[in-house]
């Protein structure tokens, strides 16, 4: 995006005000950056479940290996399972990731469509006052 923006501006005359191509390129860059942020959020939320399962699996195997008749290990497992249940289970982070992904599938193209409609209507139909042109 940066290379395309620089290439587009290289062919145009240098002026002190913002041109239409600058608005277009800046908005496209914002949409690309927002898509990367959305991807990172979905990726983090979907991997939380896997990390939680691995950490709880590790703690369960340690508790099961030290099966020497102590009630402390079983109490520890009960506390961890109740903590897991209080968080809503492992599926909450995965469902958050899916919700973010579903909303983004509609919201991002919709927002880009709205931007296109507004941008092109302003660009095509707006005419500056003669007094504004120096």
TrEMBL record:
<feature type="transmembrane region" description="Helical">
    <location>
        <begin position="106"/>
        <end position="126"/>
    </location>
</feature>
<dbReference type="Pfam" id="PF02932">
    <property type="entry name" value="Neur_chan_memb"/>
</dbReference>
<dbReference type="InterPro" id="IPR006029">
    <property type="entry name" value="Neurotrans-gated_channel_TM"/>
</dbReference>
<keyword id="KW-0472">Membrane</keyword>
<dbReference type="GO" id="GO:0016020">
    <property type="term" value="C:membrane"/>
</dbReference>
<dbReference type="InterPro" id="IPR036719">
    <property type="entry name" value="Neuro-gated_channel_TM_sf"/>
</dbReference>
<dbReference type="InterPro" id="IPR006028">
    <property type="entry name" value="GABAA/Glycine_rcpt"/>
</dbReference>
<dbReference type="GO" id="GO:0004888">
    <property type="term" value="F:transmembrane signaling receptor activity"/>
</dbReference>
<dbReference type="GO" id="GO:0005216">
    <property type="term" value="F:monoatomic ion channel activity"/>
</dbReference>
<keyword id="KW-1133">Transmembrane helix</keyword>
<feature type="domain" description="Neurotransmitter-gated ion-channel transmembrane">
    <location>
        <begin position="1"/>
        <end position="54"/>
    </location>
</feature>
<dbReference type="InterPro" id="IPR038050">
    <property type="entry name" value="Neuro_actylchol_rec"/>
</dbReference>
<feature type="transmembrane region" description="Helical">
    <location>
        <begin position="23"/>
        <end position="44"/>
    </location>
</feature>
<keyword id="KW-0812">Transmembrane</keyword>
<protein>
    <recommendedName>
        <fullName>Neurotransmitter-gated ion-channel transmembrane domain-containing protein</fullName>
    </recommendedName>
</protein>
């Amino acid at each position: 995006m940066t290379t395309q923006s620089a290439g587009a501006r290289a062919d145009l005359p240098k002026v002190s005000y913002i041109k239409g191509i600058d608005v277009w390129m800046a908005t496209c860059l914002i949409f690309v950056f927002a898509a990367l942020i959305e991807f990172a959020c979905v990726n983090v939320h979907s991997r939380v479940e896997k990390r939680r399962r691995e950490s709880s699996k590790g703690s369960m195997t340690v508790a099961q290996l030290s099966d020497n008749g102590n009630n402390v290990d079983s109490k520890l497992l009960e506390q961890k399972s109740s903590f897991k249940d209080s968080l809503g289970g492992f599926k909450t982070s995965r469902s958050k990731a899916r919700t973010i992904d579903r909303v983004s599938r509609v919201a991002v193209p919709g927002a880009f469509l709205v931007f296109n409609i507004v941008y092109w209507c302003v660009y095509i139909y707006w005419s500056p006052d003669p007094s504004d042109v120096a």
